[in-house]
């Protein structure tokens, strides 16, 4: 209970069941990122990834500023989704067919994101790294970080756990 009050609800298995490689039980250095989505601004993430010690002086995280200089390679995104579907990630045919367009649309606030929102109801559309002129690996990583912890209804899970403990399960 103390941990939940201090850090928020703990990670649920459902949140990482499609992670490849599977993350449960692996050693990590640094904080749990499971609920980082929406906690910090895009600018904070870009600054932290570019120079972690400028944001958190005691951080041992290396710098990832090169991600902002690296164009996002997307020609094989559909093939990547097909491979993930083979190992159990439930991508639909429509998601795979539109993968390259959806990837570009997610970082383009001027585009028509209606179809993207249909395929991915909780998608967020914006420029993530502060440079709308190009799509970079920094855009992709910040978009991923901003999504973490936003797809599961933690309050509902907490209520179910409380009910189960009251019934002695």
Please tell me about this protein's structure:
This protein is mainly α and 169 residues long. The chain is globular. The longest helix is centred in the last third of the chain and has 13 residues. The chain starts with a helix and ends with a helix.
Please outline what is shown here.
With 169 residues, this protein is mostly helical.
Radius of gyration: 18 Å
* Individual helix count: 10
The largest β sheet comes out as: none
As a percent range, the share of helical residues equals 40-55%
User: Would you tell me the overall average pLDDT?
Assistant: 83
Shape: globular
What's the total count of β strands?
Answer: 0
Topology:
Elements: H1 2-7, H2 13-16, H3 42-50, H4 52-55, H5 77-86, H6 93-97, H7 99-106, H8 114-119, H9 137-147, H10 154-166
